[in-house]
Amino acid sequence: MNRTPFIVRFLQATPKSGWISLAVFALLTLVIIPVLHLAVAEGSAFHVSSYVVTLVGKILCYAIVAVAMDLIWGYAGILSLGHGLFFALGGYAFGMYLMRQIGRDGSYKADLPDFMVFLDWKELPWYWTGSDSFIWAAVLVLVVPALVAFAFGFFAFRSRIKGVYFSIITQAMTFAAMLLFFRNETGFGGNNGFTDFKRILGHSITSPEMRVTLFGLSALMLMATLVLGRYIVTSKFGRVLAAIRDAESRVMFLGYNPLYYKLAIWTLSALLCGIAGALYVPQVGIINPGEMSTANSIEIAIWVAVGGRATLIGPVIGAAIVNLSKSFFTQAFPEYWLFFLGALFVVVTLWLPNGVVGLWQQMRQQMQQKRRAKA
Amino acid sequence: MSDSGHMLIPDEVDLSHNVILYLDQISVSFDGFKALNDLTLTIDAGELRCIIGPNGAGKTTMMDVITGKTRADKGKAFFGQTINLREMTEPEIAHAGIGRKFQKPTIFENLTVFENLELAMKMDKRARTSLFAWLDDAGRDKVLDVLRQIRLDGESERQAGLLSHGQKQWLEIGMLLMQDPKLLLLDEPVAGMTDDETARTGELFKSLAGKHSLVVVEHDMAFIEQLGGKVTVLHEGSVLAEGSLATVQNDQRVIEVYLGR
Ligand SMILES: Nc1ncnc2c1ncn2[C@@H]1O[C@H](COP(=O)(O)OP(=O)(O)OP(=O)(O)O)[C@@H](O)[C@H]1O
Ligand SMILES: [Mg+2]
Asked: Are strands B183-187 and B213-217 parallel, antiparallel or unpaired?
């Protein structure tokens, strides 16, 4: 019997139609949009403006978060209402590096970041050690959110905290972190957070090339997340997760310890959020504790619910729909955005339990049935 | 809690005194109510034991204690001579070789029949292993084999939640067969089955005895008669009588609390 090599199985988990869609997506995000932004003159009808690139880039980061959320909520049945924290931690970890890259170009022309000069600090706190290194920043982005999630998850899952209780303590977790980051003494810029970034690796952060690079990296990361997610949910590991969602005690009596399954997918989910946060911050140019607000984390769950849980592509669509509407509303009728979001959530909960993707699947089935009835 | 996976796959259960399960003076109370009261019970290796008793006698609670779902307040619970069940978690107990069928059929409703059986298969069940695991031909054959045994070979790709009640019972029994435990605890396995299905279940259990040990909780007297093993009567959390079905059926106290009604 010859074994199929792992890498082949990994890639085969995504079906052919998935790969075709990914190829189209790659063409669009890695070739067409960059060319239309960089090479087509601004006056031209074909020019893609920096506003659009930044907006779509932002949504790509949100989509990564939504897929990460789907892995834990859609596939393992664990609703986190604190995922904004992991996103923000990734953003802050990379933000520290961005602050150091400002160098002496800040308003105080000092070696220390402006907010520290303002607080009359004379040197960097110990936890800023190494923050001028890009490599170290990347390490922090990968390690900090994952480590926080691991520690939190270990205790919560070991204590067998489930369902709505788990959701509530994740809310408390992100809220507590927000309060901590609001304090100036914490050393992360208080309520202003980090902003006025100038450079990455010495290159200007506002240049069109940098914009397109960050945009492309976000697109690549989203594609990688989807391929990885597809492998996980179709693997035996993914089936055990679905089994835990259905009947956790049965899983235990079969000899599986749900703790490690939950902890693994939970930590991975947080890690993906952290990466998304690190890609997001340089594109929008700011990170502050508002990202850790409870409302933000709830919104993530709404993206997934709108798109369709346990579908992987659904959350991407959900994140796009909600955030495009958001940028439309906040410009046209800012005061109505929250009403719209609330109404959307009610509609989805009542009539679209499987989200937009579920609706699409249902319609396709009905059409097939009709066709069969005719034939 | 230790990971079922990090622990070593236990050595053979020590059956040197020919005893596979030994409960000694086990008590469990819920808010002062004694569900098990100094329960002492011994199951021999290879035995097929039936447990009967009125509703609320503590039959399910006994299985909960053996499988680690409920913690005993006091007493001893040993699997073979050496494995102390009171110190182990549910997955560890399952690994040691105790399998269980719940009173209410408990299967994975959103997975297919095939996937239900696949997950039950005896193998390394660590998260890390599952991530890279894949079903080889031998595993597939094993699943197909059990599918035939439980007569669900036509339903292999069907979503388990769509099966009939009787079929769900069979599927859960099939999962136990995949798990291949040394001791099987079966809580009302034929509830909701037709007479024909019940008779076939009886045949299956009898064929398993010897190589496996079985503890069957049932209310169906005809089924217990078919199984033909020793019968233990539980009442108010302890053993009221024990012996052949005929012996306990003629026991005056048993007639009073259970059979007579
Ligand atoms: N988790 C619990 N909390 C409180 N009381 C419980 C709990 N589990 C069982 N009991 C009580 O313990 C007693 C024994 O219950 P158990 O389920 O073991 O009975 P049983 O013999 O299996 O009955 P049946 O034939 O109805 O299945 C019952 O009175 C029940 O109400
Ligand atoms: Mg019971």
From this structure: parallel
pLDDT tens digits for range A144-201:
999 999 999 999 999 999 999 999 999 999 999 999 999 999 999 999 999 999 999 9
Ligand nearest to the CA of B219: 1
Could you identify the residue written with the tokens 């309520």?
A191
| Residues paired with residue B79 on neighbouring β-strands, in sequence order | B21, B83
Rounded distance between C-alpha atoms, residue A27 and residue B96, angstroms? 54
ipTM above 0.90, yes or no: no
Residue pLDDT, tens place only, B5-41: 444 445 578 888 889 999 999 999 999 899 999 999 9
Q: Helical H runs in chain B?
A: 59-66, 90-96, 113-120, 127-132, 137-149, 165-179, 195-208, 221-227, 245-249, 252-254
- Chain A, window 212-271: residues with a beta carbon less than 8 angstroms from a chain B beta carbon: 232, 235-237, 239-240, 242-243, 245-247, 249-257, 259-261, 263-264
CA distance A297 to A281: 17
Q: Is B7 on the interface with A (CB under 8 A)?
A: no
Which of B131, B173, B177, B186 should one mutate to test binding to chain A, selecting the residue with the greatest count of A CBs within 10 A? B131
Euclidean distance between CA atoms A284 and A115, whole angstroms: 19
Region class of A202: left (phi > 0), else alpha (psi between -120 and 50), else beta:
left
Q: What is the pTM of this model?
A: 0.92
Please tell me whether residue B98 adopts helix, strand or coil conformation: strand
Residues 6 or more apart in contact with residue B44 via CB below 8 angstroms: B18, B19, B20, B213
| Rounded-to-integer distance, Cα B101 and Cα B206, Å | 16
CA distance B122 to chain A (A): 9
CB-CB contact of B217 with B60 (8 Å): yes
Q: Is residue A69 packed enough to be buried (19+ CB in 10 Å), middle (13-18) or exposed (0-12)?
A: buried
Residue nearest to atom 30 of ligand 1 (CA): B56
Nearest by CB to A239, from B4, B119, B179: name it.
B119
